[in-house]
Write a structure and sequence with these properties.
Length: 801
Amino acid sequence: MKFSKWPVLLLLVMLARVSANTQDGYQVPSKAIADVVDAKLAPSSRLSPNNQWMAFFERQRIASLKDLSKAELKLAGITLNAKNFSRSRPRSKYLSIEIKHLTSGKTVSVKGLADGRILSPSWSPDSEHIAFIIEQTAQSYLYLFNVATQQLTRSDIALNAVITSKPYRWLPNSDGLLVNLAVNISKQAPSAKTAPITPVISETSGQKAPVRTYQNLLQTPLDKALFEFYGLGQLARVSLEGKVTLLTIPSIIKSFKPSPNSEYILVGEITTPFSYLVPYSRFASKWQVLSISGEVVTHVANQKLAEDIAQGFDSVRTGKRRISWRADKPATLVWVEAQDGGSMKEDVPIHDHLFTWKAPFKSDAKLFAKVERRFAGIQWANDKVAILSDWRFSDRQVRMQIINPKNPDGPRVLFNERSYNDAYSDPGDFVLVTNKFGTRTIKVVGERYMMLTGIGASDKGNIPFLDRFDIKTGSSTRIWQSEAPYYERVKAVLDDSGEKLVTLRESKTEQPNFYLRDVKHNKLNKFTDFLHPYPQFKDIKKEKISYKRDDGVTLSGTLYLPANYNGSKLPVLMWAYPLEYKDKSVASQVRDSPYEFTYIGYWGPMPYLANGIAVFDDPTMPIVGIDGKEPNDTFRKQLVSSAEAAVNALVEKGIADKSRIAIAGHSYGAFMVANLLAHSDLFKTGIARSGAYNRTLTPFGFQGEERDFWQGQDVYSAMSPFFHAEKINEPMLMIHGKQDPNSGTYPMQSERMYNALKGLGKEARLVILPYEGHGYRARESILHVLWEQEEWLKKTLLSND
């Protein structure tokens, strides 16, 4: 009997369609990789101001697609939940709270919580209460938990977390809290039906106003009305017993902060005109000081709409800015005013003036200090000591000076000056203490000593430390430092001598846990017992390796090998992110520790060790400005040289199969991937997530590039892989969130790059994730991304084709 071939072909076509359809929708990777998504990590923690209690917050790491698909409003750079007047995608959210006493070990669980995610927890300055928010469908509620009585109370007031994402603040005296109320929560919002139909008009006066590519800006008069409706709040005071006292009339509250003596409130309010060009942070605003009962005490400033800030990363708005309270005084305002028109490119001897204004604000404000470069901040200790910092982008310099607040423009002691990229010279962070007002200031012991903690970056890796600095002699003494084979960081100093510490200790195989360390007696007591979250990856091998690129710059990265590695050559997945420097020696610095715990996060390359792939994580890709040139003048050359050096190092170690190396990255790392595929033949395939590929779509600067497109057309075109797509001969997987709000990385960037590759006959795959932003949050999305990457690597890296 003779059979026609057509039914067989038809069956094969149908089977192919079935196979294709099985890949429609969200997919799940292999079990070993999927398990990483659900691994339970150690909780977030907060030590009480009196160093007696540690609060632990179980983290809600991922959301559901249902959560992300809820209706959102995008206004003036904010993505908000209109139903409960809050930000729709907070970064840190929690599921439960547990509190443990440092010395007795007594544990207290916060029980009786309503359903909803926990947000913005904080200790009261006197350490007796923890405040936090539970966000529910209709509104966000403020909760207080009394540690001593274990009493939990809820305030039924509706909070507005649209502009002030943390809608409450403790009074420094711990007698209560200030909150921003949602005035319009029960009112009907403006709609397209009620809004007038009018033209959208923008006009320029001819003055330069370079603006970076922001997303989610106001676009219509209706958007302006909605921003005003949802942003409208009202300041109130809430007592520990829950009594609510209204303090102001409704306004769009941008900031509110009580004075250290709890007698005044500094309030910033957004005012019209709003803008279609910049986010809310650059809108006009009015700043006033109120009494604690709500009366206006004095007007402080009117900040104008800042659409015309000068070009440059260290450029600022004109007029008063960074208005705050001096932390070591009862009620003294502090602010900064530019003396250069807001532009660091102006050749002036002094770029900023720092002013102070003391309550009751009857006399004029006083010029406190002249700042040679751009003001970076001031840390207060007492009447004799403060740390004044300034910086400059052109040479990446940051400087810290010790000043006497009674004579701030008198003799200053240079505490530290370095490139802010120079990790080896980083002196660390000052140990702080809660002062008599309830605010945080630098801890000064015996009016002479300050203590600093830092990660201790060195050519041997990070070696965390605790130092004592002698103000009188200007010298430092090392009190303690971490010792191999552990990576141990100081989280709190419990005494004046620096001998009793709370540390966070880990090793390559031991999950970080808190310890109580007695330096003098060399004793160590374990305080927590968090379990290893990835036991299936416990035996992987880790090694820090260093190598040089052809211009002599020393590079490094961390090599991970599968647990069952037998010495053979392996396919390799490299995951990197380029950074810019002004100094070759700084670019060569090691910035992690060989003894850190091996995290197998779902975000990066580590899960693919389960597929028998070696991982080379964070191989340094420095872009260095040399001999007065800007780093990006030779971006492509340095990028390819760094990648080539990494590949050669892996091949020379006998680890890598040179014909099977993949390159991957996220955001600027995705930009790197496309450039390396276009301008080298080092890699078999690439994975590029949430990237930007055409720099003409970010014409007023990107990453560390200050020049605009019209000043650096050659640089913009040379760096844009979209302009060189015809040179990409390797398959590239691109992934992007449909609602990416990040400056410059519109989803259109990936869509246009994919269309270019498709039109040129290149091999590419584009995955657009519904409801996702620049990072991916839904469990379904994360699992699908892991599946996409796993299948892509199987197809392009692991196959024998």
